[in-house]
What does this fold into?
Amino acid sequence: ALLATITGASSAVLMRPSPVPPVTSTVRMSADASISAPRKALWKPGEISPAHLTGELAGDAGFDPLLLTALAKKELPDLLTGGFPNMNQRMIIIANMSPEEQRVSLEKMRDAEIKHARLAMLAVVGWP
It folds into this structure.
């Protein structure tokens, strides 16, 4: 009886309409001109995806709260001598990057993540 009560309560919550209105991805200005609206972040309802995350890469859900993409642009000696840039410095770094630099930086971070994930999987099975 308790399980039926819990299941009934959870299904009632799931059936309730969402209070967040849907957001369109394109705004029409005239018959032949349109601008792109900010993309919704898929990882958290109501959040806007950062401008440098365009959704072109597989798995891009608009999640970069620490702006780690800016760190891929920095050279390793700068990070070792000067420390990691804080959030304000990271926002400035990303704002000064061209769209091509942002794409390359994001691809570098993605490739590094794949490499480290594969090494972690090998370590689990006992790779020396």
Remarks:
- Residues 26 and 102 are 22 Å apart (CA to CA).
- The mean pLDDT is 68.
- Helices lie at 2-15, 76-82, 87-96, 99-124.
- Strands lie at 26-28, 34-36.
